[in-house]
Predict the structure.
Amino acid sequence: MTETTQALKHTALHAQHEALGANFTDFGGWDMPLKYGSELAEHKAVRSTAGLFDLSHMGEVYLSGPEAGKALNTALAGNLSIMKVGKAKYSLILDAEGKIIDDLIVYRLEEEKFLVVPNAGNAPVVAAELAARAAGFDVVVDDASDRQSLIAVQGPNAEAIVRKLAADEATAQAVTELKYYAAVKVVLGGIDVLLARTGYTGEDGFELIIENEDAAALWEKSVDAGKDHELVPCGLAARDSLRLEAGMPLYGNELSLERTPFDAGFGPVVSFKKEEDFVGREALEALRGATPPRKLVGLKGLGKRAGRGGYAIVKDGATIGEITSGQPSPTLGYPVALGYVDAEFGAVGTELEVDLRGKILPFVVVELPFYTRAK
């Protein structure tokens, strides 16, 4: 084992992944399963049956107190104080220049208690920023990232699998009745769980937040519950191809400290109606109404080869953009990509090309998402 590997963090489920023969990768400083066998098979399982993911590298930061909503409205771009208890909301945390520090999901657990879930590599930065921005408010910020784990069950059979973990019909019914982007505290497999109907795959599914000491037991119980529903453990490779098909951005690819919400097409995530003067507001106010120089678009490959992150997007021999994520779509059977192009070339139907290491191949701008599940 190299010194680099030794320095990586392990989730509470690392032993389970080793027992399953996972191939590991460094992701945000964590030693995470890339795949267990075939990443293609794992991808297809989520689209057709169900996949089980360890997402314990994600962060969990709680804000509690009478002014928790106000503190979040100052810290984040969205209007969180108007959320109803039990609901979730996608949001962004920005720097003073309006650039994206991270994208995250906020849950309102109680009237005076919120949970913020940032991305793995950004979790320490986001926790520190939330604590700093909450100073002066009547609120307690608790970074529970090192104490809690997150397991996801995603796919058409996800509801049936999670229902099997319920000890009684009332809990099973709570699982069924849980709406998309909502959360509820339940007992599953004898374990206290914050159950959220959220995910990053484009399928129906759930994310289960538990204490680290309960993670292994819940993982095993989920595996058992999924035996009759073709549940397959999945790694980050499948998660990446699934989210790309669903047109979902990845921090470090589509989102970064070089981009504003307007660049990424996330202007609606920003609330200018709320009273609070959130960090980055002044910078964004100056950009309102202006067309960003480059626009994030979806690209469909008209050939067989896929464009990859960093490849140049070309029009009439001139470079007019760059791919941020790209690969062949296992579900659709053709290459797909996300990328930024000069705004004038961002309309759906625009024919472009991608420079695949010297070979110029045709692509076309298409509507996002590439894939939408049948409901």
Q: What stands out?
A: Residues 26 and 32 are 6 Å apart (CA to CA).
